[in-house]
Prior knowledge:
Number of strands: 2
Number of helices: 4
Helix content: 40-55%
Distance between the termini: 22 Å
Structural class: alpha+beta
Strand content: 15-25%
Order of helices and strands: HHEEHH
Radius of gyration: 13 Å
Amino acid sequence: MSVQAEILQLLLSIRQQRNLTLLFITHNIGVVEYLSDRTVVMYKGKIVEQGETAQVCTRPQHPYTQELLAAVPRLTV
């Protein structure tokens, strides 16, 4: 398991055990999909999209969100 995956798993565990809310700032939308319930996308310092992570990631409305998602490597089987 990679160090990143171990840290993300640890964050999820701590969040659940202590009933915490985490604010996670990243350009890695793959991590956002894994870690977050809600997502806010900012572009040039302004919020351009927000909502449930599953909705934002499966039906992005803003071109910047679409570009972020297009940059995530995906496995196709």
